[in-house]
Amino acid sequence: MNRPRLVDGARLQYDEVREEHLLLVPEGAVRLNATAAAVLELCDGERSADDIAAALSERYAGADVSADVAELLGGMRDRGLVIDAAA
Amino acid sequence: MPPPRPYTLIAELSYQCPLHCPYCSNPVDIGGERYRHELETEHWTRAFHEARRLGVLQLALTGGEPMLRKDLDELVAAGRDAGLYSTLVTAGTRFTRERAEQLKAAGLDHVQVSIQSPDPEENDRIGGVRSFEKKIAAARAARELGFPLTINCVLHRQNLDRIEEILALAEELDAQRLELANTQYYGWAVLNQDALLPTRAQLERGEAAVQRFRERVGPRITVLWVLPDLYEDLPKPCMGGWAQSAIVVTPNGEALPCQAAATIPGLTFPNLREHSLEWIWNEADAFNRFRGTDWMQEPCRSCPLGRQEEDFGGCRCQALRLTGDAAATDPVCRFSPHHAKVVEARESGRSDDFTYRTMRRPSRRPRTAGV
Hints:
The structure holds 2 protein chains of 2 kinds.
Chain A: E1 4-6, E2 11-15, E3 20-25, E4 28-32, H1 34-41, H2 49-59, H3 66-78, E5 82-84
Chain B: E1 8-14, H1 41-54, E2 58-63, H2 72-82, E3 85-90, H3 97-106, E4 110-114, H4 120-127, H5 132-144, E5 149-152, H6 163-172, E6 177-181, H7 188-191, H8 193-196, H9 200-217, E7 222-226, E8 246-249, E9 255-256, H10 277-283, H11 285-288, H12 308-311, H13 316-323, H14 339-345
Parallel strand pairs in B: 1-2, 1-8, 2-3, 3-4, 4-5, 5-6, 6-7
Antiparallel strand pairs in B: 8-9
Helix pairs in contact in B: 1-2
């Protein structure tokens, strides 16, 4: 995926009642762990998957997260939640 | 055990509607005194914040036609301010480009536009008013502004054979979701059951068309296909179970566990004007009456399939309507001693004539000056 972004109308939100990260979508909510939320926050349609992995790697003391990022974005794409802004 | 946290607030802002759909699930007495005094802006605003604190994430602004509320933009903004994800469920006739822009600015998240049929003439006949072109324009305006779009089309015998056209129209309009809900028999739909009930062959063709579409289009468009449960032999978890995940509030402020719950005698529905949503959800008798599984009778109590927490005994309103007892097993269930009534209903008489939804009382006397 070249420049991932959230599909129209998807909104990231932290649910203070349930104390979890959510991706709110039309008539639904996808529960996210903290890492997934961090990845999706960076999906702005400008950054590439590599840019996202590099930014997160910096946050996590240089760990290589590119495989995790690719897997997460692939799963989100298959569910129609993330699309490629470049396509 | 404390009740589960609700996810959805269904805010029926007004029962006024430009359409007259014969399958409408609104109560048949929408024109009566009970619903005349709509809530004030501040009642709804307070309810949205209380709902979020209870755990609600999704706000459905519906009706009737929610676009007829003069304070809709304010209500949309209040929903966003409370942290709710808002859906406008509209017939589309008043959702012009200009109104769409205003609602976008107010913070509306998602637009759901109903169509009655993909064929303009049939659409207008079923809705009882000319509206097709405006609906299409509404859907296009929503997409132009980047709203995610759901098209919903309630299915029944008189439009089910157009399912391929409905699917094609949703794709052409760039909808992200298509809700194909076969009519459920509540409210006005009960009066029109003879004109609406599909044949099994229609349903099978419809389901096959949906399947082919899903395979071709993939995750780009989500198609929801809801069977009419009269053709099932195990009940649906109506509303995800009584008072398990959703709260319905009527235009006059009554809080209900489902849109049709007012048909159940002996239940008193708390009003938002007098109670907090938290008290209503946790304490009100109407919400606790059929919550969970303790209220169940046989055959639910010793369900041979152990489905008590899967289907919650099915629909209370349907149980009442077909067995006379709201606490009975939903007779859709093959283990219900009343299941034959459901089988019989599938063969009910056929007539294409509609009783249209109206807020006028059928026997209303002619209006006279000064009255």
